[in-house]
Structures are given as C-alpha cells and as structure tokens.
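User: Can you recover a sequence for this backbone? Please restate the input before giving your answer.

Assistant: Of course. Working from this structure:
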C-alpha cells in the first residue's frame, strides 16, 4: 500500500516536481531535460550507476548547485519564482540527511538538532531543548544521546542523530543520501524500519538516493532509475523487473538481487533470500 494524501479531485498530490532539468559542468552534461514527480506520503528510492548524477539532481533540487534549465516545484510552488519569505517557508518544509551524516563535530546532538531551529525560528531555549529531546526519541536514540558529541556515537547513531536534525522543523519531505551506507545489515534494516515508521506515523515523504537493494525491496513504495541523463524508468519494483534495459535488468535481477518478498501477506515472513543480502528486521537469516 502506498499511503498518499489525495487532492480534492482524487489524484495523488505531487509534493515535488522536477521538470525539464538540465545540469552541466562545462561540457559535461550530467542531466538532460529530466522529469521527476514525487508524491506525498511515499518513499521514493532513487537509483542509478555511479556518477550518473543522483547527487547532482538532489543538490540541484536543493539549490546547492545551479542548473541550466528546468523548473522545480515544491508543494506546488515554483521555487525560482517565489519571493524570499515564501522561499524560506518552502525551505522549512524540506529536511536533508547528507551521506555521512554531516553533523557538526564540535556540537552535541542537541545543538546539532537546534541548528535549523536557530536559523529559522525564534524559540525560547527551554522549548528548543524539549524539541531536541523529542526528535531524539522519535529516531529511536536513548535520551542520554542528546548531550553526546558525534565522536561518541556509533555510525548508526550518527545516522539517527542526523535524521533527527533533518526532522527538526517537522518537514513534509526529507532527502536522504545513501542513508544505510556504512551500516551493518541489522543497523541498515532497523534504519529502513524507522523510515517506514516515520512515513506511516508522520505522513512523511521520503526521497532516498540509495544503492541498497534491500531498502528498495523492503521500504520503497516506488523506484526511479537515473540513466542516460534522465529518469529512465519509474514505478514499483515489479515494474523494474519487467523493464527492458540491460543496466536495470542486471541491477534488479543480478547476482546481488533476490526474490521480491510479498509485502502484503504473511508469506513475506517466510520469504527466502539469496545468500549475502540482509534481512528485514525481525527475520532470521535463511539462505537458499
Ligand atoms: N561540483 C561539480 N563540478 C564538476 N563536476 C561535478 C560536480 N559535481 C558532480 N560532478 C560530476 O557530475 C557527475 C555525476 O556526479 P554525482 O556525484 O551526481 O554522481 P552519483 O550518481 O551521485 O554517483 P555515486 O553513486 O557514485 O555517488 C560526475 O561526472 C561528477 O564528476
């Protein structure tokens, strides 16, 4: 089931729309007239070969790098056409988790989470403290993690703390750049579960750049594949498996791929997996 909010005419609400996006660095055209829609309440997995431009697209959407052409609409508003006040309002609707967490090492978890609050809001310190503690609980960290420095945290805890910071302003849409990279299989599966839980409880929309097949199979409602400088195909995992393209076929059906668990039935719990991949949390390793 894809939990999406419907607009009044019954259509799924597009929360982010990238249209006709072209990004080039000198003569190196990385994205060429790319189109992509993200729907409210979904987890979209964004995949593609190394160097195809996944990070470039994410950074372009976030206006961290310029584009030559194209329109970005967030919550129906054209990012380039709105006034400064509206742009700030839209920025507050977005949260970002960069690839290695990117926490400020000189700040505690509490202070890291409060960075966006200080930037965008004018709140009393006691309220910011309460909010930081709430976010820490929300991402499944122990209460005492709030006053630790990043150097005192494990890799998985850093990802959670960075997610807590991305959630600091209660965004509608979060961008996650390879959130499970560097985590062990159990930590990665737990992180996937957390993302799915936040989608279900907060109605969060998630744009996730990933190489992690397990995340794609277990939590993504939809997948988009970047190739040939554009979105080559988008749809369900089943759509990917049927799509006639050598890269897509080898990615989703290759040695590292596995059977699709039936996510809507109890059979999922019994699904056997190809050796070498990780398992949804709560399942024991079982190989065929
Ligand atoms: N700031 C930049 N200046 C010049 N070229 C860049 C810049 N950022 C990215 N590129 C180029 O854009 C292309 C796409 O890079 P990008 O980092 O988006 O790939 P990716 O799909 O995220 O790869 P990976 O999966 O390996 O992280 C590469 O050829 C890269 O060298």
């Amino acid at each position: 089931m894809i939990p999406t909010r419907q607009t009044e005419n019954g259509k799924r609400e597009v929360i982010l729309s990238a249209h006709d996006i072209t990004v080039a660095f000198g003569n190196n055209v990385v994205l060429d007239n790319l189109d992509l829609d993200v729907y409210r309440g979904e987890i979209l997995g964004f995949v593609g070969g190394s160097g195809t431009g996944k990070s470039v697209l994410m950074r372009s959407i976030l206006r961290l790098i310029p584009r030559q052409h194209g329109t970005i609409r967030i919550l129906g508003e054209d990012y380039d056409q709105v006034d400064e006040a509206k742009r700030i309002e839209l920025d507050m609707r977005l949260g970002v988790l960069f690839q290695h967490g990117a926490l400020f090492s000189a700040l505690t978890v509490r202070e890291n989470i409060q960075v966006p609050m200080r930037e965008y809001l004018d709140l009393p310190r006691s309220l910011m403290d309460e909010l930081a503690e709430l976010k820490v609980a929300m991402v499944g960290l122990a209460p005492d993690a709030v006053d630790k420095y990043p150097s005192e945290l494990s890799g998985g805890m850093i990802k959670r703390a960075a997610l807590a910071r991305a959630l600091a302003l209660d965004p509608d849409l979060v961008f996650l750049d390879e959130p499970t990279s560097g985590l062990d299989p159990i930590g990665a599966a737990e992180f996937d579960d957390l993302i799915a839980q936040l989608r279900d409880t907060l109605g969060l929309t998630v744009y996730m750049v990933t190489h992690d097949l397990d995340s794609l199979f277990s939590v993504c409602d939809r997948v988009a594949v970047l190739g040939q400088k554009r979105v080559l195909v988008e749809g369900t995992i089943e759509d990917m498996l049927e799509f006639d393209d050598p890269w897509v076929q080898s990615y989703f059906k290759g040695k590292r791929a596995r059977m699709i668990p039936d996510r809507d039935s109890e059979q999922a719990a019994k699904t056997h997996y190809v050796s070498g991949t990780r398992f949804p949390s709560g399942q024991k390793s079982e190989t065929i």
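That completes the design. The beta strands are 14-25, 28-39, 43-48, 69-74, 77-78, 94-97, 173-177, 205-209, 222-227, 230-235.
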